[in-house]
Amino acid sequence: MSTQRDHEQTPVDTGWYPATVRVEHLRALTTLSERAVLVADRAGRLTVVTPDAAARGCLAGEMRMLATREDLLDAGLRESWKAGRLIGPVVEVCTTEAASINAREQAVAV
Prior knowledge:
The protein is of the alpha+beta class. 38% of the residues lie in helices and 19% in strands. It contains five helices and five strands, in the order ααββαβαββα. The strands form two sheets. The protein has a three-stranded antiparallel sheet. Strands 4-5 form a two-stranded antiparallel sheet. β4 and β5 form a beta hairpin. The longest helix is centred in the C-terminal third of the chain and has 18 residues.
């Protein structure tokens, strides 16, 4: 005889844990030597990867994209090929962007 318990399924943890972004994580995106994307995995661990690796991870459902160099440009930094990095109010922009990302991460936390 079947019981209701036989039909219950153990919930699977498919949640995303929030990442905590610091200024240093975003500063890693300011070099112009190669394109980079800040991503987080399901556990909230941060990594800077190439756009191709970010796309593969996001499409596989194992990563989420948090920030790109373009986000920092949109926020007020400028490219300087002479300096080899983004320039402008780097600390202020990265601090503001980190706070914004962290607020978004907390809002969608498990």
